[in-house]
Design goal:
By secondary structure, this protein is an alpha/beta fold. It has helices at residues 3-12, 22-36, 38-41, 64-68, 84-102, 115-125, 138-142, 151-159, 164-168, 206-212; strands spanning 53-55, 61-63, 73-77, 106-111, 131-133, 146-148, 174-176, 179-183, 189-194.
Amino acid sequence: MTLQEQLDACKATPKPQILPEFGPIIKKTLMDLIASGQAQHALKAGDRAPDFNLSDQDGTMISLSELLAKGPLVVSFYRGVWCPFCNIELRALEKALADIRARGASLVAISQQTPPNSRKAQRENNLSFPILSDRGGEVGAAFGLRWVVPEGMREVHTRLGSPLPSFNGDDSWTLPMPARYVIGQDRNIVYGEVNPDYTQRPEPGDVLAILDRLKPKTLA
């Protein structure tokens, strides 16, 4: 199955924990985010990636410059370990990891969740690439991805057992829109896919042709 087929199957599976009154709130939150046009203003191919220095799941600080010194970088922004759609995507990326590395590139995922939750995501999804913690979503904001979860949806999160302050370690109630980027060693973004609809994600293989056009080089 393709990644999108897996996501569609997840979306179609009945979820008893989603009470009838949650449906309209979830739908309105999504439609409002789409209508805001924020995705169109996020960073895209041709823009320069902002620098970052973030903690991985084990507390080790990892910078963009350090990653790019090794070759191009694939970055996936995702919502958190509580999101089943995100976990499906992470597993699909893991399957593509050997092909990504064979092209001289590396892969990281970025979320606002705390390192312990990133370790949980790694363990439960059998991941071998780093998950970086963007506390407060500052890097997500620099990419134009961070948005504020509205009040009604905050109650839904809480009642579903996924209150963001507990998972993210701050009370900002913000999330990144799901996004995937390929960043060249010169920090230029050569591929960007942003979708406010968390049930829609690009295929992991989409980045391979992009990476084929990039030849890793040692930075001066």
